[in-house]
Amino acid sequence: MISLERRLFCLWIFYKYMQRKIGQNRKEWYDYMKRLIYLDHAATTQPFPEVLDAMIPYYSRYYGNPSSGYELGEESKRAIETARGQIAYTLGVEDDTIYFTSGGTESDNWALRYAVQNGKRRRPHIVTSSIEHHAILNTCKNLEKQGVRVTYLPVNKEGTVQPEMVERAIISDTVLVSVMYANNEIGSIQPIRQIGQITHRKQVLFHTDAVQAYGQIPIHVKEDHIDLLSASGHKFNGPKGTGFLYARKGLKLQPMIHGGGQERKMRAGTENVPGIVGIGRAAVCSAAILEKKMAYESRLRDYFIRRLLEEIPGSSINGDRRNRLPNNVNISIAGVNGPAVVALLDLEGICVSSASACSTGEQKASHVQLAIGNDGHQAYEAIRFTLGIQNTPEELDDTVEVLKQCVKKIEGLQKNDLGVKTPKSHVRS
Ligand code: PLP
């Protein structure tokens, strides 16, 4: 349970934050954008200019319905197929294995529900991990209400699923193993190839939520024996509300949305043509810069981690030090409330994210932080910085300096104004 003082503190920060937001006008917005340091690329990314350029004609000139038989509609249809080919190319798979969706959440839902239907067991069983995104966890909860059994595998301190545990969890009724490619909070990259080898050997479908991995690190669908894969356009500089599901050739995918015959009768509804054009272009652009981006971001990440650990007392890194996404830095500062840091950094024009939500004064500890063994207090201390190719070392230097000030302010407030004392057990070296 979170203490009353902490709730009050969170409310106070939220109040200040809302005051600030309401008072914003155009000029303030311009100034804000000028000094903005965006370090939340796991939340979303800015679309590449090429993506916007590619999309605009499909809002203006080529507005035809892809299902219409005349030339204007045909142009939209061709654009969709080009985008499908672009995504398939980046994964080294056949074009007709890619289905466009509204994003990662829909793709995850589709994969899980399809596996349950397809498995034809009286009590189907799914194996997943305890650190999945809510798009998976809440779908599993919903499926449990319908009689599906779910095993949530624990992870080690680094936030990694152990392949031997996956093997042991599979039973004769298992219809799917779903393990994310990389975690959205702590960036830990999962042993996908080993898990794929196990599911392949045991003839169980393997789905991976690659929302945080696609466009960030190389993905080898065939070598990793991945049957189903989810991705989301806005995580790799594409438009929001776009995504795709890869379903291996030979799988008899079932529609989740019923209606017209779009997406080869698998996903009804008039296609989001500009969005699909945008996600296709984003896929190609991301693939073209992947190696350069990985090298640059991992250098920035390591530099940032080193400075944080050296200069912020009580800071520690969450997640695997080596086997993590090139752009992920997740730290905890002992005794310092994460959402409060996020709110204060926001006032300075720095966008980061905490592992817990503080909206109605009610904080909920991150399931990922708890899964890696952080206790209730520590789970509220986590702060996630996710870097992008546009970030510079100077921006990170500024962030470290501002962060030091924020930590001082919070420690002062916690001790003096609200009388919140950091419990001894809570102070980590
Ligand atoms: N899966 C993971 C790992 C994510 O990080 C997210 C979004 O943050 C999603 C799924 C949901 O994706 P979308 O926002 O496209 O629905």
Would you give an account of this structure?
The chain has 429 residues and is an alpha/beta fold. The chain is built from 14 helices and 13 strands. A seven-stranded mixed beta sheet has the order 2-8-7-6-5-3-4, sandwiched between helices. β3 (125-129), α6 and β4 (149-153) form a beta-alpha-beta unit. The structure holds pyridoxal-5'-phosphate (PLP). Pyridoxal-5'-phosphate binds at residues 103-105, 108, 133, 135, 180, 184, 209, 211-212, 232, 243. Pyridoxal-5'-phosphate binds next to α5.
Give me the secondary-structure topology.
Elements: H1 4-22, H2 26-35, E1 37-38, H3 49-59, H4 71-91, E2 98-101, H5 104-119, E3 125-129, H6 134-145, E4 149-153, H7 163-169, E5 174-178, H8 192-202, E6 205-209, E7 228-232, E8 243-247, H9 262-265, H10 273-311, E9 315-317, E10 328-333, H11 338-347, E11 350-351, E12 353-354, H12 367-371, H13 376-379, E13 382-386, H14 393-417
Parallel strand pairs: 1-11, 3-4, 3-5, 5-6, 6-7
Antiparallel strand pairs: 2-8, 7-8, 9-10, 10-13, 12-13
Helix pairs in contact: 1-11, 3-10, 4-10, 5-6, 10-14, 11-14
Pyridoxal-5'-phosphate binds at residues 103-105, 108, 133, 135, 180, 184, 209, 211-212, 232, 243.
Strand content: 5-15%
Tally of individual helices = 14
Main beta sheet: 7 strands, mixed
Distance from N terminus to C terminus (CA atoms, Å) equals 24 Å
Brief overview:
This protein is 45% helix and 13% strand. With 429 residues, it is α/β, with parallel strands linked by helices. Helix 6 links the parallel strand 3 (125-129) and strand 4.
